[in-house]
Design brief:
By secondary structure, this protein is mostly beta strands. The strands form four sheets. It has a nine-stranded antiparallel β-sheet with strand order 14-17-18-19-20-26-25-24-23, with no helix packed on it. It has an eight-stranded antiparallel β-sheet with strand order 4-5-6-7-13-12-11-10, with no helix packed on it. The protein has a five-stranded mixed β-sheet with strand order 3-2-1-8-9, with helices on one face. The chain starts with 26 loop residues before the first strand and ends in a 6-residue tail after the last strand. The relative contact order is 0.11.
Length: 329
């Protein structure tokens, strides 16, 4: 895997791929470690966001393009940085550590001498298998479970269509979903009243997972990339609950449920309303809100307000999160 791969003849290059603009190196997938090449030190899974941002800025500057920060989903406690021109998306956990990388738009990336992006899916798969790389095919592409990456194609059933995304991971996304639990259904709970430092009137940090199953009914079970050992999704209630190894609740996110939903604190309805309006009403009730990236923190009461993207006063609040302890937004 240390051999130098040559750029395939006829393969287009995105801005980051311009050898004259950046370097002769490509990103090289290092199983369960991250990416080597392009910048000294590469991009290592587990590294802090501020460190990676500084490294990329120092080495590539404006050539990497605009950086846009977003939240992949309303309930995500971690943020993502998209480097537009570089075809690079970095996913961070709730402690600002790199946990997943996506490369797209013909970014120069290899594994074991095989160029992975911008080539026909069938050719890439054949080249990887010829080198002994085990691949598990799925609906949208395939995964190399022993090498820590996956490939996504527009239409993997058509081998002539190009690979359009490479994901690099520590924990496979394919292993995340476990399935539905078998409790008896209960009536949907879509009105949530927050309790300072604890959660909601019905769901409190520290509660036992089995106790909550009895209260909330069946959940979609998963293994999160970060933040805990297990996660239960209550889609009908608009709740995402994360537990530690002892099945103790350590993170509670309230978001807009399938059938709508509300989250109230001190008489203020928080969800799906403009951020600036909510903050003004909370402050009128004597509640201090600290501005933060993609949201705000309410440190005296242990929760945070989440935006999906674009820190804009008119953007609606997508979720409210209690974590143990309260982490940066």
């Amino acid at each position: 895997m240390d051999s130098v791969a040559q750029w395939p003849e006829g393969l287009p290059r995105a801005n980051l791929c311009d050898h004259e603009a950046v370097s002769d190196d490509a990103w090289d997938v290092r199983p369960f470690e991250g990416l080597a090449g392009v910048v000294p030190g590469g991009l290592r899974l587990g590294e802090r966001r501020s460190v990676l941002a500084a490294r990329l800025a120092d080495e590539l500057g404006e050539r990497l393009g605009e950086r846009r920060t977003f939240r992949k989903a309303a309930w995500q406690t971690g943020l993502c940085d998209h480097y537009i021109e570089g075809g690079l998306i970095l996913f961070f956990d709730d402690r600002d550590r790199l946990c997943y990388v996506e490369l797209c738009e013909d970014a120069p990336v290899t594994y074991d001498g095989v160029w992975l992006l911008g080539r026909p899916y069938g050719e890439v798969v054949a080249d990887l298998r010829s080198r002994g790389c085990r691949l598990v095919e799925g609906d949208v592409g395939c995964e190399a479970p022993d090498a820590g990456f996956n490939l996504t194609a527009v239409d993997p059933q058509d081998p002539a269509r190009p690979v359009d995304c490479v994901g690099v991971f520590v924990n496979s996304p394919a292993d995340g979903v476990v399935g539905m639990s078998d409790e008896e259904p209960v009536e949907s709970v879509t009105e949530h009243r927050l309790v300072s430092m604890e959660g909601t009137e019905a769901v409190r940090l520290g509660q036992d997972r089995r106790e909550l199953r009895g209260l909330l009914g069946p959940a979609l079970q998963s293994r999160p990339d970060y933040g805990g050992e297990t996660r239960d999704w209550y889609l009908e209630h608009g709740l995402v609950l994360t537990f530690d190894a002892a099945d103790r609740l350590v993170s509670l996110v309230v978001h807009y449920a399938i059938r709508g939903g509300t989250a109230w604190f001190r008489g203020v309805q928080l969800l799906d309303r403009p951020y600036a309006e909510v903050v003004a009403e909370l402050e009128a009730q004597g509640v201090r809100v600290e501005p933060a990236e993609l949201g705000g923190r309410v440190p005296d009461h242990g929760f945070a307000l989440y935006l999906r993207g674009l820190q804009n006063p008119s953007m609606p609040i997508a979720a409210v999160a209690f974590t143990d302890p309260l982490v940066a937004v």
